[in-house]
Specification:
Belongs to the COQ9 family. It holds the Pfam family COQ9. Keywords: Lipid-binding, Transit peptide, Ubiquinone biosynthesis. Residues 123-191 form the COQ9 C-terminal domain. InterPro entries: COQ9_C (IPR013718), Ubiq_biosynth_COQ9 (IPR012762). By secondary structure, the chain is mainly alpha-helical. It has two domains: 1-54; 57-229, no CATH class. The protein is built from twelve helices and no strands. Helix 1 (3-21) crosses helix 5 and helix 6 crosses helix 8. It is globular, with a radius of gyration of 18 Å.
């Protein structure tokens, strides 16, 4: 077995363990207990948890987010975003991402709570960057200049605030969340040049992650969520 095949197999095992643990996270939170319960469901020995996820909960949440991002990309590829206006592409991307975890709100809340801990803040920002970057790529962004950072910073704000609203939304079909999303995107699209250099969907060379401090101001925190949405 080649090194590549071995790594692919290891990643598949890790993802299977995280998928199994998702059944237990709503009750146990993102904890070793949930991971061990998932391992038991897969008939894995207890020691397999530490072998597959040596970085523990942090690694498990990264895998969860990245798996969901891949599902989002696949779903958006089937939607034909190139036929939509830019604001509709972005709205569709955010909506699709949230719909993928519609039955996992408690799991998402627990992940957000874990990532708001000081020692995990940088990782949380990196994961947000990965998600919004995937959204812009799916929307057809080909920019490589300062607009690349601007678009991701702004979308991080839209995505973060909509996520916070959506988590507590009890309206039918999350209609209130989609109206909130539309308003937020409308505000963002008024910023000059935000739609510059958007073409057909394609790949581009991603620059290093340099906007952590900017996204941090956009990310939902418990205090900010209470001020914005009450509670």
């Amino acid at each position: 077995m080649s090194v590549t095949e071995s790594m692919t197999r290891l990643q598949a095992q890790r993802e299977a363990l995280v998928e199994a643990a998702l059944e237990h996270v709503p009750f146990d939170g993102w904890t070793k207990q949930a991971l061990h319960a998932g391992a038991e469901d897969l008939d894995l020995a207890p020691g397999e948890v530490d072998r597959l996820l040596p970085n523990g909960i942090r690694q498990a949440i990264v895998i969860y987010v990245e798996m969901t991002d891949r599902k989002m990309i696949a779903a958006l590829d089937e939607k034909g975003l190139e036929n939509l206006k830019i604001r509709d592409r972005i709205a569709t991307a955010v909506k699709t991402r949230l719909e993928l975890v519609e039955g996992q709100k408690d799991t998402v809340r627990a992940a957000l709570a874990f990532m708001t801990l000081p020692q995990n803040a940088a990782l949380g920002l990196k994961l947000t960057h990965g998600t919004v970057d995937a959204m812009w790529v799916a929307a057809g962004d080909t920019s490589t200049d300062h607009n690349w950072y601007t678009k991701r910073m702004l979308l991080a704000g839209v995505y973060g605030s909509t996520l916070a609203y959506w988590l507590d939304d009890t309206s039918e079909g999350h209609a209130d969340s989609w109206a909130f999303l539309d308003r937020r995107i409308g505000n963002v699209m008024q910023i000059p040049k935000i739609t510059a250099k958007i073409g057909k969907a394609g790949k581009f060379a991603a620059a290093p992650f340099k906007m952590g401090a900017k996204i941090a101001r956009c990310m939902p925190t418990p205090g900010r969520m209470r001020r914005q949405f009450g509670g």
